[in-house]
Write a structure and sequence with these properties.
The chain is an alpha/beta fold. It contains 17 helices and 15 strands. It starts with 10 loop residues before the first helix and ends in a 7-residue tail after the last helix. The structure holds adenine (ADE). The site of adenine (ADE) has 9 residues, from helix 3.
Amino acid sequence: MEFDIKNPDLATGGRHRIDWAVQEMAVLRGLREQFAKERPFAGIRIGGTMHVTTETANLMIALQAGGADVVLSASNPLSTQDDVAAALVSHYEIPVFAIKGEDNETYHQHINAVLDHKPHIVMDDGADLVSTLHKSRRDAIGNIIGGTEETTTGIVRLRAMAADGALEFPMMAVNDAMTKHLFDNRYGTGQSTMDGVIRATNLLIAGRVVVVGGYGWCSRGIAMRAKGLGANVIVTEIDHLKALEAVMDGFRVMPMIEAAPQGDIFISATGDMHVMDKHHFEVMKDGAVMANSGHFDIEINKVALRELSTGDPKRVRPFVDQYTMKDGRRLHLLGEGRLVNLAAAEGHPAAVMDMSFAGQALSAKYLLDNKGKLANKVHSVPEEVDQYIAQIKLESMGIQIDTLTDEQVKYLNSWETGT
Ligand code: ADE
């Protein structure tokens, strides 16, 4: 079996952490048991480009239990947990191509190694796998039944491909499921981003001005958790509706250029480029800290930051690079501007990835069940899948809910009854 990982000796520790995570993943555990009985993926090759974490490991193990032949590469050069990669290779015979800190060239070689496996189903996080398939690995397209996409950024890219008529197989928008973005993006990103900032810096958040770029589901989670830790939170937005929501949620809202001289910690998760740019760096305070929690390392203009500074940045702590400006101010960039929650911490907690990855597993099954019937476009996860995941999650938490009485059903289906 071919693979490319940092160190196979890390496998035992990785396995312990995978076992720890699965205790929090009740929905995925149930699916793994069901898949082991029904073997829906027998004879199917699944190629994943996803963050190599304990949670992803449990998704891969569940798919393997269902008969899939699985292979995995990283969806970000800095998000791999090397012990998990080692455990997947040594304990589960899953080929992994991922090393934390790999350069961009190796990152792309690893994606190509997944495609060499000629997958029938692709699982993507950010759409690099699907875009490589369409651009330079067309030899592997013929085998593809369809794919699943985990994140907002990936779905934006896929929709652009579909609009251009370029998408050559159906893709399931896992991110757009309610049980994904309302939970993973908000509570997962909120907690894990603050975890990343704190692990990297050990700064006290209380009393600090935290500037959050964007007010989508990820950013609002970050704003909520920063506020909960006692920060004075400023939100920046380009969308009137989201900006209004942020105001009504009690945040100060202003343009980034006004926030720049006030902020102690800046965190963006907008999915767009240069949210923090040259003119912002020019007015930031000495000591300011910047982090990105969006999918790609484009939100902070690293080239401009480098140009404004004197000499090379100094690594003052793991995941903290200090850039000294020509006027002596020191600005700090966390995790090289890559997603801070996975670079400097462990990503979202397992309990929330449980729902996202149940969505992944069920979407993969949906693709197989509907093979040949789905158009080459971006498809929504069926509502029944969302309801099923939410139901099992609630049951695993020991929470019961009401059901409609016959009288209530009748009322909801009638239009005559009013005041
Ligand atoms: N994305 C964010 N957190 C993650 C995690 N823990 N595992 C996989 N992908 C993630």
